[in-house]
Amino acid sequence: MVFLKYVLILGVLLILPDIYIYCCYIVPSKISKWWRRCYWLPAVLLILALLSFMLYPVRTGTTIVRVVATLMFVIIFGKLSFACVSVIGRLIGIRFPRIRKVFDCFALALCGVTVACVLYSFLYGYRQYRVRQVSIYSKEIPRAFDGYRIVQFSDLHVGSFIKGKDKNVQRIVDLVNEQKGNLIVFTGDLVNRSADEVDGFEPILSQLKASDGVYSIMGNHDYGKYRQWSSPLAETDNLNRLKQKERSFGWRLLLNQNVMLHRGDSCVALIGAEDYGDRKDYRYGDLKKSLAGLPNGGHGLYKILLEHDPSYWHMKVLPESDVQLMLSGHTHGMQLKIGSFSPSQWLFTEWGGLYAVNRRMLYVSMGVGGLMPFRFGAWPEITVITLRR
What we know:
It is a single chain. By secondary structure, the protein is of the alpha/beta class. It has 2 domains: 2-123, no CATH class; 130-388, Purple Acid Phosphatase, chain A, domain 2 (4-Layer Sandwich), CATH 3.60.21. 38% of the residues lie in helices and 16% in strands. A 6-stranded mixed sheet has the order 1-12-2-3-4-5. It has a 6-stranded mixed sheet with strand order 6-7-8-9-11-10. Strand 3 (183-186), helix 7 (202-205) and strand 4 (214-216) form a beta-alpha-beta unit. Helix 1 (2-26) packs across helix 4 (63-93), helix 3 packs across helix 4 and helix 4 packs antiparallel against helix 5 (99-123). The chain is elongated. It starts with a helix and ends with a strand.
C-alpha cells in the first residue's frame, strides 16, 4: 500500500504537466497526429515500469531501477519547472501579450538547468560525501570526556547500492574509520525493506572500529514494514536476521537499552531507543525502559540518546527526561536542499543540523544513503561530534 501511494503521486506529477504542455503547445502545432500520440509514450512507459516494480518488487540498487528513477525525475522536474513558468507567463500575458514569449524562453532555460541538476544528483550528487565537524559544549560533560569524539553515520539504506559492484559502501566505512573517533554510532535505517539487502556487504561493515566500540539502533525501515510478508512469522524472522547481522559485524545493537562509557573514574551514558515514529504501529521506542538502570537514576550524569526519528525529541525527550544530547537521522534533508531551504522543513521541525532548547541539544544527520541514489544540496554526511566541557 505504501508503494502504491508513491506510484499514484509520481503518476500525477508525470501526467499533469504533460496535459498542460500537450494542450497548450502540441495541439496548436502543425505536428501530425501520429507524432502527437508519440508524445505520451515516455510517460506511459514510465508508469508501466512503476506498476511492474509494485507487482514484482526489486532492489532499488539495481541498474534498471536506477535508470527508470533517473528518467522519471528528469521528466517530472524538467516538465514541472517548464510548466510552472509557462503558466505564470500565460497569466501575465493576458494583460501583456508580448511578454508571453519571454516567459516561454525562460521556461525552456529553467527546464534545461533543472534537467542538468537532476542528472548531476543521480550520477554524482549521491556520493558527494561530506565530513561535518560539530562541537557540543556543556558544563555537565565530565573533564575526562573533554575532546571525546563520536563519529555518527546514519540511514545507509544499503539496499540502494549495487550489490557486488558499488564501491561506495567501502568508501563510507573508510571515511568513518579515518575520523579516528573514540566511539562510532549508527542511528538507524541499515536497509530499505529486508535483511537480505545486507548480504555481500558484511565483510565491509565489519571493518568499522573505534576504541569504545560501534553502537547502533533500529530505524523505521529496519523493521520490515515496507514489504508484504507471507506471514507474521516471516516478518519476525526477517527482523531477527537483521539484528543478528548487525551483531555479527561487531556492532552493539541497543534496543531500549543503555551502556556506560568510562574514562578513569568518570562516565557518561549512551542510550539507544528503538524507533518511535508518527504512526502508532511504528512506535517501538520506550524512553523509560531506555533510561532504566542508570546509576543514581541518571541524576548528575551526562546522557547521550540515539533515536532514529528527530520528532522523538519534542514528543518524549524534552518533556519526559533530562537527556542532554540526542543524535538522530531519518529525514535525509529529503535529499534536496537549495541554500537554507529543504522540503524537509514542511514535514519536520528539526530536519538537519544542530538544534538547542535550554542548553539541551539535538543533532540530525542528513544520512549517507537513501531510498534512491539521488542528492542535491543535502549531501550525504558523516558527522564528528566532539564533546567540550
